[in-house]
Fold this sequence. Notes:
Largest interface: A-B, 24 and 28 residues
Oligomer: heterodimer
Strand content of chain A: over 45%
Amino acid sequence: KQEVTQIPAALSVPEGENLVLNCSFTDSAIYNLQWFRQDPGKGLTSLLLIQSSQREQTSGRLNASLDKSSGRSTLYIAASQPGDSATYLCAVAHQGAQKLVFGQGTRLTINP
Amino acid sequence: DTAVSQTPKYLVTQMGNDKSIKCEQNLGHDTMYWYKQDSKKFLKIMFSYNNKELIINETVPNRFSPKSPDKAHLNLHINSLELGDSAVYFCASSQDQGRPTGPIGTQYFGPGTRLTVL
């Protein structure tokens, strides 16, 4: 059974810092890994999708890496801004299960 | 333009009632999903439909019945509501490759329906 864990559960950093969010999964048989952000009271917004054959994906100040063999992904946020404050969730598309399995998220607060 | 929309946004009702939540996507995707997010913010899949065909039913009580009249719509009907049904319900859609065994594409989520059962 695929399990996804995100550490830390909450993170608070000053504006301007670079930071890394972690995601680990137990079964490496995945199609892809997806990162989302969720603002309070809102739905999820897709940030990045990394295919199982890829090592990383970049979008603006965001960079996501994937190490499938060790069951880990990181989301790197450069030059953080208060607008980056949100909950960040990772999810793996597990092969054969045809569904996304989500971690419980990291609640990020960027302090001005 | 709203990609995935849900109605209503808030739903407050008494135990034992029957209610429905509607979802529509205008992205042309062939797969739609229902997720439940509990009070601890844990997001878990309930159902998925591909081209109006049920693909996933995650051992959800049969009081929950999804219905997909066409590819663009997936509604959720809940009978005999219980206190434990209180949660936020999200609809999502994606364009997948080669169902039923192909990979899942990027998922697009609706804004959620906050259900409160009193």
